Amino acid sequence: MRAFGLRTRLLAAFLLVAAVSAGTTATLTYREARSALLKTAQDTAVATFREHVQQTGFALPLRVEGEEREWTEQFLRDLARKGKPRPWVVFAEYGSIRVSSGQSPVSTVITPELRRAALANPYGHFERVVKDGVPYLTIAMPTVFKTGPYSVLPSGLVLYAVMRMTDEQINVDALLTAARDGALPGLAVALVPGLIAARSVLRPVRELSQAARSMGSGRLDTRIPVRGNDELADMARTFNESARQLEDSVHELREAEARARRFASDVSHELRTPLAGMLAVTEVLDEGADADHLDADTARAVRLVSAETGKLAVLVEDLMEVSRFDARAAELNADEVDVAEAIRKTLQNRHWHEDDRVRAELPAGIRARLDPRRFDVVIANLVGNALRHGGAPVTVRLRTEERPSGATVLIVEVADRGPGIRPEAIPYIFDRFYKADAARTRSAGSGLGLAITSENVMLHGGTIRAGNGPEGGAVFTVAIPLRAEGAGDEE
């Protein structure tokens, strides 16, 4: 399972929703239970304290000296013992007089706000206060005189009840612990349906990924099983429909490509016979033009026809060679050759060894298994291309190179000093019929020479690369393994 894969994100989202739901439920339940618990305790205490105060009579003005103080304190202690839901500490305040049922006559948890509320409200007031981490319920209940059926007059005497709420706090903490402890197992249980949901979502996604890889490898008949009627099923149906359309389109393209290849091959074969006759005739006419048997205009026309017929013959041969590559019928008849000697023969057969524009740097002693005819085509096409489109001098370099993998590679470089190749043209330089006219002079070739060169290099198990040299000019680099792996020798 990937760290941030779709399964992880689905599980995380599912658990997050479960955690939010459990947390929200636990929080609301805790709040309601806490409010009910505290409200029950404080309502009981307030109602009980109000009832006892209303049933008690005091002789006013209150004096707390001698026996009267002892009587008042005893009264407050008796009242404190009657506290519900648990005993209180009762305080009495009348003007500057302070009496209590406890050790101190003044309470530190009775706030000024409670005192002001007691004076303003003759029916009493209460507050929950936390002092040094201990929760208290403080109740203020003023004593009053009834002046009518529905009217009262404050007497000035206020009784306060202070009750610890530690038991309620313990119960509240227990509720919080129960809510927390109940949420954790809930998340663990939610993991199971999360895994099931993630699996049900990821299964069609995995099938889609496998189908895409299968189609990428060429199996265009790949389809995904459609299950259900949800969005994932719609995705599977869309993929299947797209795959079917793609299969049909590719099938049509392959048929069209096959027809085009057959057409080029058939045309090339059909043109060879008449071209052979035309070449024989043009040779005779060339001899007549060279012998001055023809007038100047006719001789010029004859030479033009002869040159164009030769170009047509070369184009037909190139088309036939390309057709053999397309049909996978090209064979590699490899033999052990001296690479430097093979390059010299290529230059000599085309009289380039006498041309000052061509230089060769060919160290002796480099041998490799090559197809002499195809290797000759590679060198001839690269040098001829450099002479036609580049600038002198054209340099042919030969060397071997050790790769990091430990393999030894044969390297042949053909460099010229011309204008070079436009960077945007480099990726297409070996395409068929491509001519980088903007970077070179107008090409007289067919545009198939470099494509045939690339096919012959790949047939040897090698690679060819085009680029520009640091000092200008185009550089074509051929790399052929001295022991071609995976290419195989077809003899």
Automatic annotation (TrEMBL):
The keyword Glycoprotein does not apply. It is a multi-pass membrane protein. Its EC number is 2.7.13.3. Residues 1-22 form the signal peptide. Its main location: membrane. Gene3D superfamilies: 1.10.287.130, 6.10.340.10, Histidine kinase-like ATPase, C-terminal domain. InterPro entries: 2C_sensor_his_kinase (IPR050980), HAMP_dom (IPR003660), HATPase_C_sf (IPR036890), HATPase_dom (IPR003594), His_kinase_dom (IPR005467), HisK_dim/P_dom (IPR003661), HisK_dim/P_sf (IPR036097), Sig_transdc_His_kin-like_C (IPR004358). Residues 199-251 form the HAMP domain. SMART domains: HAMP (SM00304), HATPase_c (SM00387), HisKA (SM00388). Its cofactor is Mn(2+); Mg(2+). GO terms for molecular function: ATP binding; phosphoprotein phosphatase activity; phosphorelay sensor kinase activity. It is found in: Cell membrane. Residues 266-484 form the Histidine kinase domain. PANTHER family: SENSOR PROTEIN CREC. This is Signal transduction histidine-protein kinase/phosphatase MprB.
